[in-house]
Amino acid sequence: MDTTQAFAHILLRFRREKGLTHEALAERSGLHPTTLSLLERAKRQPSLSTVFLLAHGLDTDADRLIREVQKLRPKLRK
After folding, report:
1. Residue (of 70, 61, 59) closest to 28 by Cα position
2. What φ, ψ does residue 43 adopt, rounded to 5°?
3. pLDDT for the residue 2
4. How far apart are CA 29 and CA 58, in angstroms?
């Protein structure tokens, strides 16, 4: 699983755990619902500012989102 797919999986999981629709998370994060859909389907990579907006909308920290993504993606070679 690459980073974009891992982020998509984590975003979808967190949104569902919070019981939020795309529209509700969009309103809370300031992002467009279409953007959220693209991110959840791994059709777009999030910018750093998008990660922070999503974390705010999900009532969590950006570092928590990133740590969860790291757990899913393969280790990078040094």
Report:
1. 59
2. -95, -10
3. 86
4. 8
Alpha carbon dihedral 17, 59, 47, 24, in 10-degree steps, equals: 60
Tokens of 30: 């300031």
Whole-angstrom Cα distance, residue 33 to residue 26? 5
**In which band, very low, low, confident or very high, does the pLDDT at 71 lie, cut at 50, 70 and 90?**
confident
Enumerate the H helices of the chain as residue ranges: 3-18, 22-29, 33-40, 48-57, 62-72
Question: What is the CB-side half-sphere exposure of residue 57 using CA atoms within 13 A?
Answer: 27
Cβ count within 10 A of residue 7: 26
Give me the pLDDT at residue 72, please: 84
pLDDT at res. 77: 44
